[in-house]
Amino acid sequence: MPLPSHVRLIEVGPRDGLQNEAQPISIADKVRLVDALTAAGLDYIEVGSFVSPKWVPQMAGSAEVFAQIQRKPGVTYGALAPNLRGFEDAMAAGVKEVAVFAAASEAFSQRNINCSISESLERFVPIMDAARQHGVSVRGYVSCVLGCPYEGDVAPEQVALVARELYAMGCYEVSLGDTIGTGTAGATRRMFEVVGAQVPRDKLAGHFHDTYGQAMANVYASLLEGIAVFDSSIAGLGGCPYAKGASGNVATEDVLYLLNGLGIETGVDMQQLLVAGQQICDVLGRVTGSRVAKARSAQ
Ligand code: HMG
Ligand code: MG
């Protein structure tokens, strides 16, 4: 399969990157981050979550962040919505696209959203109906596609089942998440082969956490499988509060470096991206998780 000529980068740093941060981050700093990512040319930025603040306290200010960001035409500013309540809150905050999130493993589904996989899928049906009424697109996530922190191995067939359900109920794209970052390139290819038989590959995205240092290899393995949409996080920030020890997503800067090297277009500007990454690392008092950013700052 030839490599894609264009890849879409979904920047999940403000959501997946920051949701796990214990220290308070001001609304102003979150807004500055989103605006800096917009300036870098990203055309999809996941800004926050409309989830229970008891479950994920850091995302509590998402409506205020949405109220203050500078929206650039052509850029999608998305948010997670786990239930109808979250969807309605998102609409009230002027969100134009939401994402629902399911898991390929029962135990993770219980820990993350307090219900079974099938209950979660049922819960998404009214969201899909409401989204259609509002003319809002819905993205779908499947977590634990290459392993579960509670159950261990996850069969690709199980991933395919959940991904197919999300696609069938109207998610325009399904992002397959290696939540705990244990996947390897071979497992990634096998997973896309199996899921790709149920959902068209141009409707699938890769979402790789880098816990075991495999995320870049998994992005490349996915490219070889014809996948052309990747979720990534500025400065490699993040982790999931319900997957202990899970590190951040693959760093946006590093994926961009790979894609630039392959001559694959993204529309994203490296210099501006590095500025955005440096800014948020300064706020967090943290060294960047991006190898490219580290190398550039050492020059
Ligand atoms: P629950 O406790 O079963 O919900 O949580 P409930 O319906 O029984 O409600 C309990 C309380 O939560 C009530 O408040 C509700 O009003 C409130 P109380 O009466 O106790 O004061 N509530 C809400 N508040 C705000 N917004 C809402 C909302 N819904 C209920 N939308 C629930 C179920 C889904 C709400 C909860 O489990 C939850 O919020 N989970 C979110 C978990 C989460 O955000 N995880 C991280 C994102 S997923 C991820 O990172 C993976 C991903 O990156 C891909 C990958 O890497 O694999 C996407
Ligand atoms: Mg994630």
Topology:
Layout: E1 8-11, H1 13-17, H2 27-39, E2 44-49, H3 62-68, E3 76-80, H4 84-92, E4 97-103, H5 106-113, H6 117-134, E5 137-143, H7 156-168, E6 173-178, H8 185-196, E7 204-208, H9 215-224, E8 229-232, H10 252-261, H11 270-284, H12 291-298
Parallel strand pairs: 1-8, 2-3, 3-4, 4-5, 5-6, 6-7, 7-8
Helix pairs in contact: 2-3, 2-11, 7-8, 8-9, 10-11
This protein binds 3-hydroxy-3-methylglutaryl-coenzyme A and magnesium ion (MG).
Q: Overview of this structure, please?
A:
This protein is an alpha/beta fold and 299 residues long. The protein has one domain: Aldolase class I (TIM Barrel, Alpha-Beta Barrel). The protein contains 12 helices and 8 strands. It has helices at 13-17, 27-39, 62-68, 84-92, 106-113, 117-134, 156-168, 185-196, 215-224, 252-261, 270-284, 291-298, and strands spanning 8-11, 44-49, 76-80, 97-103, 137-143, 173-178, 204-208, 229-232. The protein has an 8-stranded parallel beta sheet. Helix 9 (215-224) links the parallel strand 7 (204-208) and strand 8 (229-232). The chain is globular and about 50 Å long. The structure holds 3-hydroxy-3-methylglutaryl-coenzyme A (HMG) and magnesium ion. Residues 16, 177, 179, 207, 209, 240, 249 line the site of magnesium ion.
